[in-house]
Amino acid sequence: MERGGPGDARRALGRLLEAVLASRGEANAVFDILAALQSEGQEEIQDAVRACSRLFGALLERGELFVGQLPPEETVLAGSQGATRKYKVWMRHRYQSCCNRLVELLAHSSFQVQELALSTLMKFVQLEGMHPLEKPKWEGNYLFPRQLFKSVVGGLLSQEEDHSLLLSQFREYLEHDDIRYHTMQAAADTVARVTSGHPEVPLAFWDNAFTLLAAVSLPRQDCSVSSFYVKPAQLSDKWKVTHPKEHRKAFQLMWLGFLKHKLPLSLCKKVLVIMHDSILPHLAQPSLMIDFLTRAYDIGGAVSLLALNGLFILIHKHNLEYPDFYRKLYGLLDPSIFHVKYRARFFHLADLFLSSSHLPAYLVAAFAKRLSRLALTAPPEALLMVLPFICNLLRRHPACRVLVHRPGGPELDADPYDPGEEDPAKSRALESSLWELQCCPWRSDDSPPAPQALQRHYHPEVSKAASVINQLLCLPEVSIAPLLELTAFEMFERDLKKKGPEAVPLEFIPARGLLGRRDDLCAQCFTLS
How far, in whole angstroms, is CA 63 from its chain's centroid? Predict the structure, then answer.
């Protein structure tokens, strides 16, 4: 190829391209075009990719590539087949070399090169689907360039580089039903291949795989499959790609194949965040996620909080029986619960789990007592949510109101409640009282009030919320939804917007002069001169 500036190289590629398309006798010029794909300069590579796109796109449309099982190049060229067959086999091998190089360019340092290589490969996928390079096994057989597309997905799921930006570009192709279906199959195969060949899978691969899997969003069950990237001449009901049920099966196999491996903790949290609304509703058998969710729930900490959403769906809609569920939910209540990122989600689900009137009184009392004890050190924004939460528990379960109305209760230093007990049934919460919230109205007159009672809290709104427990608990429940995501900044802004009285009385007799009234001691002893 001619050497010179970018413009000269681009013109040289154009001349080579026109020569190859015009005459089969100039076919060897393909080597020069493919050699340009190995260039170091970004612009040279982009020009070569565009040239290959035009060249092999035209050859596919003309039908000048070999169709069928591709034989070895040396065998065909040394044989006695006709010149046309030899040319098509030879050009098919060049096309394969081009596709392999384009897949390698998906890992190029320049994102512009990556994006162009991806769009060119997807163009070849579309053209191969319209002009198949394999013979149909029977009439009406569905032909999709699976091998080429599988290599594209394999290139996107790099083990060395973070391809989140490139995967975001690939997301637009997932809007087509056929691309989404084959992406799920190719991703499942790639994950199985990489994990079986590597004892320790790199973190970059897990991140890329999750980004791709999370981008796959199935339509509603009642939607028909009609959007095809590779448009067939005529749809057939015999094709699996046309049935939403098959899409759900492929979606399930993809996620199960991904989640059966030991994932990094950070990635496990990301999966659990989208589990309840992006994964479980689209599975053919949601109950198959029981093992993953129960393992995550047993980890503890923030991972257990995130696993609650998925477990709630399985328990509520799919009749999951989880032993010691409430015991482990009780164990999640620690001082950090008011400071974690997922506090709102946890208390929303805890409110749902404790809404049943069939729960035993000792269990509800244990939760109310544990939350009351933790409230002593909780920030005000959390208290404004926790206090109505506790009052709602007492409203739902009248048997627990003894925690509030207990005449002659125990002394504060002899509280029977055991905060270190992991089993709520053995915590003796029902024998105690909610002295953390009250000023202990049941104590004798000569006994001082509880110094830590939240009704004496420094924040007036917290004190007001805690005093509700002394009122009638037969009133309707208070919705805690508006309080779940309340922040300290919002409380501060709300306090700033409060309007005080127009005039604040400071002294009954207004002062006159800098030193006060004439008969004041200050005016008698001092003078301003």
Answer: 44
Which backbone phi and psi does 484 adopt, to 5 degrees?
-65, -35
Is the separation of the CB atoms in 430 and 410 below 8 Å?
no
**pTM (two decimals):** 0.79
Residue range 361-416, pLDDT digits in tens: 999 999 999 999 999 889 999 999 999 999 999 888 888 888 887 655 555 567 88
Query: DSSP letters of 156-196?
Result: HS-SSS--HHHHHHHGGGGGSHHHHHHHHHHHHHHHHHHHH
Residue with tokens 């005000």: 380
Burial 246-265 (b: 16+ CB within 10 A, else e): ebbbbbbbbbbbbbeeebee
Tokens representing 81 are 């087949």
Amino acid at 520: D
Burial class of residue 500, CB neighbours in 10 A (0-12, 13-18, 19+): exposed
Instruction: Summarize pLDDT for 326-366 with one digit per residue, the tens.
Output: 888 898 898 988 888 888 888 988 898 888 888 899 999 99
Of residues 361, 301, 292, 350, the one with CA closest to residue 326: 350
